[in-house]
Amino acid sequence: MYFRRGSGRVLWKLIGLTIVGAGGVVGYAWYDEDFRKAAEARVPYAKQVLGYIFEYLPAPKSPLPVP
Q: How far apart are CA 22 and CA 41, in angstroms?
């Protein structure tokens, strides 16, 4: 099978982008309860995956009150 030179770079970039995107979703869901509920309602298996990940994270600090 013929592969162009550099095709592995594209694969690694896609894998890295996927990891960064998933980490961003998890981080924001950890911080914002409304976002977490929306993600759990719209994304299949998100509730189970986020629940498993959040078992190992400390509870987020409450945001500063808006004056």
A: 17
Q: What is the pLDDT of residue 66?
A: 65
SS3 43: coil
pTM to 2 decimals?
0.69
Cα 18 to Cα 48: distance, rounded to the nearest angstrom: 19
How far is residue 35 from each of residues 18, 28, 42, 67, measured CA to CA in Å?
19, 7, 11, 23
| Residue at 12: amino acid letter | W
CA dist., res. 54 & res. 45, Å (int): 14
In a 3-state reduction of DSSP, which class is residue 56?
A: coil
Question: For tokens 């894998």, what's the residue?
Answer: 15
pLDDT tens digits for 22-60?
Answer: 999 999 998 888 999 999 999 999 999 999 998 888 877
* Token digits of residue 57: 């994270």
